[in-house]
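Re: your question from the hallway

Yes, I did run it. Sequences:
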Amino acid sequence: MLEIALDLNQTTGQCRSAVTDSQFIHMITDGSSYRKYNWNGQQLNSTLTITNTPITIVMATTASAVVVGSATTVDVINVSTNVKSTIAGGAATFTTNWGQQAATDKNGIVIITKATNGQVTKFNASTQAFSTLSPTSLTGAQATSVLYKPDTSTYLLGTNTGKVLEVDASGNSIKSITLPNTPNISAPTITVTGLSYYNDVLVCTTSYCEMYFYKYSTGANLYTMPIPAASNSAATCSLSDSASGHFAIATGNGATITNMSMTAYCFMPNASSSPTFDTVFCESITRSISCGIEPTQNQAWFAYFNSAGNGIQFRSYKIPPIQQTTIPTRGQDPIGIDVSQRVIRIRRDRPGQGMVEVDVTVPSGSQNVACTDGHNYIELSKRSGKWDIREFKS
Amino acid sequence: MSITYTGTITPNASFIMRDCMINTNNDDIYFLESNTPSLQRYNGNGLLSFSASTTVLAGGGAICMINNASAVITSSSSTNVDWIELSGLYRSNLTSTGGAALSSTAKGQQLAGDTSLGVAYGVTATANTLMRMVASTQTAAGVTLPGLGSSQFIPTAVILRTTGKWLVGGQQKIYEIDQFGNVTDQLSINFSPNTGVPVNINSSAEMNPTVSSMSMDNNLLLVALNGGFLVLYDWSTKTRLWDSEYVAQATSKAGVLSNSSSGVCLVGDNNSIFSINQPTYECDFSTNSMIQYQSRIFNDNTNPIVSAVMSTTTNTAVYIQGTTPKVRVLSVVPIDTVLRTFTVQVNGVHVKADLILLDDTTGTAKRLLDTYFQSPGTYRLPTGKTIIELVKNGEGANAVWDESTYTWTGSNYPP
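Structure:
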């Protein structure tokens, strides 16, 4: 269950986004500010003035944060010295209404969305130089969200033509998935507003209030879920990077939505499994514009687009641990004779949220089988028409 | 698991759309409009041609079949009831006894009939009060929900749960009532878990969950709440299984659900504030005990959806839009499923149990159903699957488990 860990209120400006690590929260706000906090909520720097209407901040290297937004410049911030460099020659992001407008490989390369057909901006934080990438698959479309895909060192681009494209850092097109736009009474213009990826599972959200789960390697649609969406123009739900299959869901920016909302994060470990959600109703918060998970702290954070004094602006929730661990298992039949067995581990923290996290056949003897720390499991063992069950908390 | 767009009926632009209905005997489509006011009938089976119409009572706002030959209509400006003989659209206007009027807000699920019993219930704008119509006597009367004391429960939605049982939803509660108006069960709804009392950020008024519409498939109940939330319950134990926020909504507005057919229902947007055309979704809430969309149809305008219905005998589905009146007709083909009743008994007594079904057809297990239910319980399973069934009664050291693996053909019962 999501429990409040930390609320950070600003005296001015609305929180736009953050990037975190084990020690710090690097936050950007309207009012063009960068603030650095520890996980106790203490501001550690002097508030730094940054680019107008920032929307995304990424750690391009361990030392440098890069801030993008509506300006044609980017700010490179040395997070240790609190010194900023403003680099000209870029372009505004596609939007400032939802997150995931920039992504990095953490080795200095940052790919940024752009409101120009067929192009994305590439920024090298090490050389502080811009270039433009023109993937052929992006022809006639604009990148509306971007995610780094660590297993292949490539980037996923959501587009305003209802596609998810994979490109490399040189702009070569690798793969494309097209989201459904039929049947229709009128053909929609689908904008991909959020992306997350883990272990061959691609998750994307759209301007039409749907969250798609794809088996990425085959392009097969596994599940489609309704998403929390709060906007007066279109759904602008964005996602966080995945942390071991866990990702947070931001409802999106909506100027006229005033009712309380739901905060959620999701877990889906592989394409053979099914998603499980953890949700909480929020007391007076309207909509979240960006989100993230900090695995070292076991927290999920959300930037809520509220003006100062009008609701929470940044909140981090404690979540159950997301780290993978192993719990040994051992099958014997009869007692004393070790046997091979099929082990099915069902993660089930409450009725209705059960999902198969692991399904493996293990050799005889004590075997370590993966699971996620801090969750409740049902373990089913099957062998030659026989079965056994146990429950445990990892 | 697919939607096919059949077509659109474009009514007179002056019509104020209120409700719609499908005659399950012949697939004819009916919709109610309160401007004339009139009931309009169109030929079904994909023809979508005008058939007939009749004037109805002023403020006519909700319609349902009460038996195989007739429908009833309740009004937001009158406590009278219209009785409609469907073949000839012959109309009788009846005075109710102690009745109450509907809310004037156009929405579906304000009237629900049991055609086998010839009884229909309708919600009203009066606290604790329903309208009850009986076909055999052609009478209509106001019914006070008993046992609520001084609590002011405004009923907002009613559906037929099963023969002789209705679910009446309102603020923070869903009541099950029988054909005589007795409350036989109830479910409390709250916005929890929460990080504090949910409020409207501008007014600071506490938000209480209010039922907008419901859809039921055997033990599983999908509820649309104000504020744009969907919640899935196992009705037998009132266990909350799944919840989701699905669209941006003003505080007082919520989603529109149709009735379910073969475990799927339509999900529509009653008060879109979007500037883009919100789709209408086919929602499957039965085969995985999740809230998931199987398909959707992209609309061509942002007009709010007032009411939606699905035929339980054909694949026809209909939803109506207000502002600029439209009647959308779809064909919705659900996943091939069959119902299975699960029983868990201890010493011959039916008990509550955890029920988990895994699809093991590919050799890698995947969730098929996860619930906590009161035995016996009926759920929908896709056919032709190899299923691992897990059942647990009790907790901790006292828990008793059972497991079986079988291929479900729709008629076999596992050992």
